[in-house]
Write a structure and sequence with these properties.
This protein has 9 helices and no strands. With about 200 residues, it is mainly alpha-helical. It has one domain.
Length: about 200
């Protein structure tokens, strides 16, 4: 999928989902030509923002920064967590599809999971200059658009009517929340194992 098609999901989602559904991209192609590249954006931006720019909770507080070594470890862990989370979501979509009268290939499920995350990948660029209130606001907009992409894409990618697609998309969002909670739990375990953030003095 070209970069133009990727940005096309932001302003003409139905047409782009239709194009994606007609392509014969393999899981490997989706992973290495789209997901592996796009998943680099959040940890890379966070690395720059947390080490070279820093952040503060108010105008009066001192700017906080992570050490380069600590930020690098966290960024690498976050990168692989994103790849694993998208794969887990695709596997859930594939498993749940029969409940809603669909039998899609794993390839279609991977495409749906990966491309639905496009707004989240793109908005993470702003993490390179962390202004917390602005980043939170933009993240909420990106989450809302990702949810809209999912609701738009499920009927097209799964080959079902919009009513069943709406319910299926709701189940996928529930799975996303479970995956998020799981990632938070793993983060706590890692932090307790010595991967906790280290701040500059």
């Amino acid at each position: 999928m070209s970069l133009r098609n990727t940005f096309g999901l932001l302003y003409e989602p139905e047409q782009q989902w239709q194009k994606i559904s007609e392509k014969n991209d393999s899981i490997v192609k989706t992973y290495f030509k789209f997901l592996v590249v796009m998943a680099l954006i959040p940890p890379s931006a966070a690395f720059v923002g947390s080490t070279y720019v820093g952040w503060s909770l108010s105008f009066t507080e001192e700017t906080q920064r992570l050490t380069v070594d600590s930020a690098l470890k966290l960024s690498i862990a976050a990168y692989f967590a994103i790849l694993a989370a998208v794969f887990a979501l695709a596997a859930f979509i594939h498993w749940m599809a029969r409940t809603y009268g669909s039998s899609p290939s794993m390839k279609r499920c991977m495409n749906l999971a990966a491309y639905s995350c496009t707004p989240l990948f793109l908005v993470s660029v702003f993490g390179a200059y962390p202004i917390l209130w602005m980043d939170m606001l933009l993240s909420l907009v990106a989450i809302a658009w990702a949810v809209y992409l999912l609701y738009t894409g499920v009927p097209i990618m799964m080959g079902i009517d919009k009513e069943r697609g709406f319910m299926f998309a709701g189940s996928i969002i529930t799975a996303c929340m479970c995956i998020l909670v799981g990632m938070l739990a793993v983060t706590v375990i890692f932090w307790g194992s010595g991967l906790a953030p280290a701040f500059t003095s």
